[in-house]
């Protein structure tokens, strides 16, 4: 399976905020959209980082930053690790696990095309395994030849 399979199923909508917005703005957007990460952009809509639930915990709970005053540019993860639509899901899942992050922005030709999470990968793998199991069961029982 490929990353494009997940994007085709879940859609390519990505929530973004500019780097001058606050942590509170990001947390509100995350809550409203029921997501765990927001892509942070510059004023030209180019991605410059990612803000996740872990960033919130690190900046507010651990460092004591004021979420209503601290800008995303100060709180975001600046090292933006990306995936491509044609990446293999097993490879992407392994990389995310080994590098210990849960959200991966997906790009093609320099353009943001979506975002996937570890949960998306798990759901896709589970659906695939259920399909294979059902097919093999039907084949063994003679329902299909």
Descriptive account of the structure:
The chain has 145 residues and is α/β, with parallel strands linked by helices. It has one domain (3-141): CBS-domain, CATH 3.10.580.10. The chain has helices spanning 3-10, 23-33, 53-62, 72-75, 89-99, 118-141, and strands at 16-18, 37-41, 47-52, 83-84, 103-108, 111-117. It has a three-stranded mixed β-sheet with strand order 1-2-3. It is elongated.
CATH architecture descriptor text? Roll
The amount of helix comes to 40-55%
In N-to-C order, the SSE pattern is HEHEEHHEHEEH
Q: Mean of residue pLDDT?
A: 94
- Overall geometry comes to elongated
Q: How much β-strand is present in the residues?
A: 15-25%
**How would you write the strand order of the largest sheet?**
1-2-3
CATH class: Alpha Beta
Please state the CA-atom Rg, rounded to the nearest Å: 18 Å
Oligomer: single chain
In the CATH hierarchy, the third-tier topology is known as: CBS-domain
Largest sheet: 3 strands, mixed
Into how many domains do the coordinates divide?
A: 1
How many β strands by DSSP?
A: 6
Question: What is the straight-line distance between the termini?
Answer: 25 Å
Q: Unreliable segments (pLDDT under 50, ≥5 consecutive)?
A: none
* Number of H- or I-type helical stretches: 6
CATH superfamily: CBS-domain
